[in-house]
Amino acid sequence: MSDIANRNKKNPLLSPKDIEASEDNMIIDCLLNPGVFEFNGKTGLLVRVAERTMQKEGLVSVPVYNDSGKVEILHFNIDDPKLDNTDARVINYDGTDYLTTISHLRLLFSDDGTTFYESEEYPAIFGEGEYESYGIEDCRVAKIEDTYYLTYTMVSTNGVGVGLRTTKDWKNFEKKGMIFSPHNKDCAIFEEKINNKYYAFHRPSSPELGGNYIWLAESPDGIHWGNHTCLAKTREGKFDSKRLGAGAAPIKTEKGWLMIYHGATKENRYCLGAILLDLDDPSKVIARSVEPIMEPIAEYEQTGFFGNVVFTNGHIVKGDTIKMYYGASDEFVCKASFSIKEILTHLNIS
Ligand code: MAN
Description:
Layout: E1 6-7, E2 26-39, E3 42-53, E4 59-65, E5 71-77, E6 83-84, E7 90-93, E8 96-99, E9 102-110, E10 136-144, E11 147-156, E12 159-167, E13 173-180, E14 184-189, E15 198-204, E16 214-219, E17 226-232, E18 243-246, E19 251-253, E20 256-264, E21 270-277, E22 285-288, H1 299-302, E23 310-318, E24 321-328, E25 332-339, H2 340-346
Antiparallel strand pairs: 1-25, 2-3, 3-9, 4-5, 6-7, 7-8, 10-11, 11-12, 12-13, 14-15, 15-16, 16-17, 18-20, 19-20, 20-21, 21-22, 23-24, 24-25
Alpha-D-mannopyranose binds near residues 311, 327 and 330.
């Protein structure tokens, strides 16, 4: 076992019962995968809230937003041979996929980093328009100068892409549209420019040739991206054999840019690994985890909405300590800390 995470004793920090659903006819199934930032001396979480509709016996019901942004409920008979409901996250009916839940993002703050509360001052963020009609998910937050860049997964029947909104005060947001077109997710922008260019990780999927790999892109303005290079691929027989994707913005260390990423097997077991990139040219990989730095071993990481998952897209760094927040079993928000030195040792970097 190569797990070097120090799990918080109060885990899980947040469970679905801790906050209220967005509408009376919705039920929160999952609180997961928070973006993390500091604001006015507090720790802020942008938690993904996945909600489903009430279920009736003999039926599978899924929510979709109609063109005017209102939730509509579709019902399928559980015995219908055209229905495939073997995955808790997505069902297929007669060739069309439907999400069992729809996600929005909720802002929560904390003074101590473990007890989080909502405030009416900071409303929830919902999907808007035709590219977000199945909701928005897994937001990364990067602070560059005085602006927060929110990169998140836009989901709709058009596909899964990466959206960008910016804010300075968490009340007013500027929508910058889709910055990486489908199929793409897991986008994290670096928090400082390198040689006057912005950099971002992203994760396109190429179903025939290639796969679900982590890529790096450059930009002159943080909005328009190009010069893509492939950074890390799946590895047969390892914890990241089926897919992988970047966590939050990378951490600048003396030895290089440190990225924490998730890697999954075809059985959908999600672990975390680390990759170290050259400080001056982040397209150069210096080192990569052979074994995971974190595995789903705690009870709340193994059992829940979608078990055997640890997934991160947010952290705060203080000195040698990474205070990482993560989704466990796609149902709970948890916290763990890592020592940067220890991760570098795990990468055989001294
Ligand atoms: C995908 C995403 C994540 C989720 C994992 C595990 O990578 O949808 O939001 O946490 O799967 O289910």
